[in-house]
Amino acid sequence: MRQQVSLPKMSGLSLIELLVSMTIGLFLIGGLVNVYISTKGSDNIRSEVTAMEESARIALSSIRQIVSHAGYPSMRNLHIDAPFYAETDDIPNTDCRGGSESLISSATASINILNKKTKRIGGVNGAKRDAMVVVSIADSPNAPPAGQIISDCMEGEIPLACSSDEEAGMYNPSDAKLYSYLYINNNRSLLCKGSRGGTQPLVENIENMQFLYGIVDNDGNYQYRNAEAITANSQWGLVVSVQVAILVRSEKEVLEKSEAKTFVLLDEDISISADKRLYRVYTTSIVLPNRAFREL
User: Fold this and answer.
1) What is the rounded CA–CA span in Å between residue 226 and residue 87?
2) Is residue 27 part of a domain?
3) Residue 12 forms part of a structural domain
4) H or E, element range at 46
5) In sequence order, which residues have a C-beta less than 8 Å from that of residue 189 and are 6 or more positions away?
6) One digit per residue, pLDDT tens: the chain, 296 residues?
7) Which of 138, 180, 274, 277 has the fewest beta carbons under 10 Å from its own?
């Protein structure tokens, strides 16, 4: 007789076991997705913070370089009444020797430096932003190059007839002034406009900027005041240092929820409308090397 060979039974997953396995798999995949999303969000935040730090470094370095020239009396140590201008009428546009051009170049297309003030100006959503006009006396382009200042913040070089050159410069050498105008436009770009021409963004994503001016009064007291207080007390000639605060924002919206925010920049509360961007405050203090002797 032929013997029957019994084959082993094939066993598999039941429907219930399959559903349980799929459910567990979905939980595991969901966890991995959450970890990925969280990691990606953290990476985006870190990337934006790094970019903000770099923007702050460039902005404060540029401001320091420009502001440190405030009150420079030229190599001839000429009289300069104030290192900054606060009021429109205080900014003269003197004719240079020969009358062929003015101190503020016509190439700047009626530079807005004459229409701005160092005190607070309106910004987006009514936010108050400071602006600053830095003043220094221009050396003669014919003088030895070491240490001389003959150009504004945009490297616009002053012509000989407008400089403090003894023979070919301004009739009154103390009138040979260079102006560098720092401000933030409504696109959140920090700009410097020079009196000899040119405007260019120094860095972007600067939401706000505030200044306080350090003075030493006649009694030897040291204190910081804003531009309005300095103007009201006629103390621009006593300014020996500047405190700077900038509010930097991220390029991208990286937060999960929109948030309204308020920041304190020196003596000013700055409110930001709700959005998903990051914001950071950075500060520095700048001693004016050409004015610090007044502390003595």
Assistant:
1) 14
2) no
3) no
4) helix 15-67
5) 201, 202, 203, 204, 206
6) 555 555 555 555 566 766 666 777 777 676 666 665 666 557 788 899 999 999 999 999 999 999 999 999 999 999 988 899 876 566 788 899 998 888 988 765 445 544 444 555 555 444 688 989 999 999 999 987 767 899 999 888 999 999 999 999 999 999 999 999 999 988 999 999 899 888 888 999 999 999 999 998 777 788 999 998 998 888 888 999 999 999 999 999 988 899 999 999 999 999 999 999 999 999 999 999 988 754 43
7) 274
Burial tier of 94 (Cβ tally within 10 Å: 0-12, 13-18, 19+)? middle
Please report whether residue 120 resides in a domain. yes
Domain of residue 176, residue span:
40-295
In a domain, 201, yes or no: yes
> Rg of the Cα trace of the chain?
31
Distance CA 86, CA 287 (A): 19
Those residues with Cβ within 8 angstroms of residue 270's Cβ, 6 or more apart along the chain or in another chain: 127, 128, 207, 208, 210, 247, 262, 263, 264
CA 27 to chain centre: 48
The Cα-based distances of 160 to 46, 97, 100, 121, 222 in angstroms read: 50, 9, 12, 34, 39
Residue 281 pairs in a beta bridge with 247
Residue type at position 132 = M
Q: Where are the beta strands (DSSP E) in 83-219?
A: 84-85, 121-122, 128-129, 132-137, 177-184, 189-194, 199-204, 206-216
User: CA 15, CA 247: separation in Å to the nearest integer?
Assistant: 60
pLDDT of residue 89: 60
Q: Could you tell me the strand order of the sheet in which 199-204 lies?
A: 84-85, 132-137, 177-184, 189-194, 199-204
pTM value is 0.81
Nearest C-alpha neighbor of 197 from the set 104, 267, 117, 67: 104
| Total structural domains within the chain | 1
